[in-house]
Amino acid sequence: METPEHVIFHYRPMVCMGLGIAVGIFLSGSVSGAGLIMALCLFSLFSGLGIYFGFKGAALFAFGCAAGLLRTLFGPVSLPYGLMYPFEHMRAGLSSACASLFGEHAPLLNAMLWGVKGGISDSVYDAFRSCGIAHILALSGLHVSFVAGALNRLARRALPKVKFYTSIVVLFAYCAIAAFPSSLIRASVMSLCSLYAAAAGRRYDMPSGIAFSAIVILLADPTALYSIGFELSFGAVIMISLLMRPVTELLSFLPLPIAQMAALSICGTLGTLPLSVYYFGTIPVLGLFANTLILPMVPFVFLSAMAVNLIGAAMPAAAKALSFIPMFLTGVMTEAANAISSVSFAVKQAAITPLACLFVYLACFAVSDQPLISPSKKYAACAASLFAAVLCML
């Protein structure tokens, strides 16, 4: 379907709705009582006017704002204890098996596998954060891709619908064992959207998948909007969605796999950097280098540790014999992080305002494929946004 020339952006219903819900939840902190009722009526009116005049995006955005305001009146959705108890029991068992199998590396692997972060030492966590690779300790798209990839290999001859329904069961179980962190839910929902598109014979649209996962999370728990994990996770994946192709093209002088890996690191770093500076007050100067060096190790660490941990549930002796593999790989990864973080200029102190963060993200959006405008206008919008970001920090 051709997009009319006067349309500036691609119209995506899920994106409009997701943005509206997020804005509604954000505004709910400043309205209450009669103000809340007036805001609900106003957004409902805007939604109706948008439908009447044919502005579908505006109508969905206004409806999302009303839904976000209304959703904040109720608490987070919680699953019945009877449903969650088996998964909590499994989590405790797997975490205990991990501790007995991997010794001093167990806290790090427990965080990477099951989201149990309590035992990580401050020195290790600081080293990972200084390198800009602390995101590998949060269950997210990286981890879901490993699980989905392994599942896809096991069921490679199955029908797409069978893969889709099997993935629902496996990813729900994984999310439940990890106690439903926002980043893992986001990645799981996006993965399922991709599988559903394949099963239905339709093209997967990544921005719509991102927006739909945000809608699922925010409707289940509106307070997730203010979670650092939620913001960092969505910041990274949104930037990957926006800039992955342009950055890969800029790196076309490199072999394609290396260019894609470097582009992934650059985009992920751009997506999380403004928020990291705002929340933590530091810039990981060597973050891009650390991600390029260490991220290729993560699949081997994760998959080997996961396999050994699961084998340990049935054959403890065999798992103990194989545990040296993930322990060795984890040791290499940790030593690399320690070495990079020990460099004198690895971390720089910095500060940024929330409004400046917004303008930085707008600058990245301006040069992406989403605005259907000429390159000169894109670069002008990017420059104006960056200039506004600098002014906000003066």
Structural write-up:
- The chain is an all-alpha fold and 394 residues long.
- Helix content is 73%, strand content 2%.
- A two-stranded antiparallel sheet has the order 1-2.
- Mean pLDDT is 89; it is low at 1-6.
What key phrases describe this protein's structure?
globular; two-stranded antiparallel sheet; mainly alpha; disordered N terminus; 2 strands; 394 residues; 18 helices
**H/E element sequence:** HHHHHHHHHHHHEHHHHEHH
Question: What does the main sheet amount to?
Answer: 2 strands, antiparallel
- Round the Cα radius of gyration to an integer and report it: 22 Å
Helix content: over 70%
Work out the helix count.
18
Average pLDDT for all residues: 89
Helix and strand composition category:
mainly alpha
